[in-house]
Amino acid sequence: MLILMHPQATLRQTGEILTLAETLNLRPYLSRAQGRRVIALTIEDEPLTARLKGMSGVEEVRPLGSGIKLTSRQFRSSNSVVVVGGDHRTRRVSIGSQSMVVIAGPCAVEDRGSLLAAAHAVRDAGADMLRGGAFKPRTSPYQFQGLGVKGLELLAEARQATGLPFVTEVLSVDDLPAVAEYADMLQVGARNMQNFALLRAVGESGRPVLLKRGMMSTVDEMLMSAEYILATGNESVVLCERGIRTFENSTRNTLDIAAVPVVQRRSHLPIIVDPSHAAGQRDLVEPLALAAVAVGAHGLLIEAHPDPDSALTDAAQTVSTALIADMVRHIRTVHRSLSPLEADPHTDCNGFVAPNIGSRSLDFGCNGKDSDR
Questions:
Q1: Helix (H) or strand (E) holding 187
Q2: Model pTM?
Q3: pLDDT digits (tens, 9 = 90+) for 89-114
Q4: What is the C-alpha radius of gyration for the chain, rounded to an integer number of angstroms?
Q5: pLDDT at 32
Q6: Could you count the other beta carbons within 10 Å of the beta carbon of residue 92?
Q7: SS3 state of residue 275
């Protein structure tokens, strides 16, 4: 159920609702929508609904529905902004704000030299974060599986050398403690999008999470997977559209470009696009990246390597770090040119406007704190 507080409701009145929920062993989720505090409870109970309606400060109690709850704009009408990094080691990166976030680096960490070369190149090109896989899920068990913990150590060294926070994939609950110890952001890959034990575990880690859409999953299924993470109390979730499997075989996957505005209409979570896995061919990466910018993606995840032809994983779709600077410049040029199209930051979910290029968020959505408390 969704408890909508009166716009003039006091903190004490809101606190009474939260206390009641906790007394009943329910986990309340506090947010803000349409200029007022809202509290979500993931149950529907008629006696409790009647009791809540009679409490001071409550304006309305409505069903939250059987679909998405915590990821919905009904729960939070302003855009969430996920912050990665920002400690003494790294720059602060905000995903979901007005800026276009570029995350670039090799598909897999192969060795110290190539990783550091890639990290310096993407930083100098203007990328905001580094990507690189230490644990790699491969279709064949005989292909390179990544360096494991050694790869995490090399990513940490690259972070120290460049100041770039990094995102890397976690494959299993068993690997999570090691990955969470090193990484600034955890990636749940397409193959694990519905690994519910892993989703709960990464949520409970408290780390920001990048959730990739499954290659044969719908937008609804991706949002429901995000619910598993948010239900742990971890609100730092970024969605990633990386292409889906269709009958078309001219590209590795079919980039569902419409998923970006569809998600933005339905959810407050940021969404970025991975043009590399969608394309499967390096000459298509930039056109797909620019298309993602045009429809309002909050960021891009791009595979880049100093010598892409020799890359041990996904060589065909990996761009050269020698060319990444031009690509980032083109991306930022298109983003700046579309900035006047941004939606009214006060528009609620019922009047949501897409594309939402560089859209601003209310303070509550940006930092997760109610500014009048």
A1: strand 185-188
A2: 0.84
A3: 899 999 998 899 999 999 999 999 99
A4: 21
A5: 81
A6: 11
A7: helix
Interior angle at CA 310, CA 309 and CA 312, nearest 5? 115
Alpha-carbon distance values, 108 to 13, 278, 306, 362 (Å): 51, 17, 12, 37
What ranges do the domains of the chain cover? 2-62, 82-351
DSSP 250: S
- What amino acid occupies position 87? D
Question: What is d(CA 71, CA 60) in angstroms, rounded to the nearest whole number?
Answer: 20
Instruction: Judge residue 131's burial from the number of C-beta atoms within 10 Å of its C-beta, 0-12 exposed, 13-18 middle, 19 or more buried.
Output: buried
Query: How far is it, in rounded angstroms, from Cα 281 to Cα 367?
Result: 38
Give residues with Cβ within 8 angstroms of 265, minimum separation 6: 73, 349, 352, 354
Distance CA 117, CA 246 (A): 36
> Cα separation of 13 and 36, whole Å?
13
User: What is the C-alpha separation between 21 and 132, in angstroms, rounded?
Assistant: 42
String of DSSP letters for 206-230: -S-EEEEPPTT--HHHHHHHHHHHH
CATH of 82-351, one of 1.10.510.40, 3.40.50.2000, 3.20.20.70, 1.10.540.10: 3.20.20.70
Which residue in 265, 337, 270 sits closest to 301, CA to CA?
Answer: 270
Which tokens belong to 236? 């730092």
Tell me the residue length of the chain.
373
Q: Comparing 209 with 26, which gets the higher pLDDT?
A: 209
* Spatial contact of 132 and 150, defined as CB atoms under 8 Å apart: no
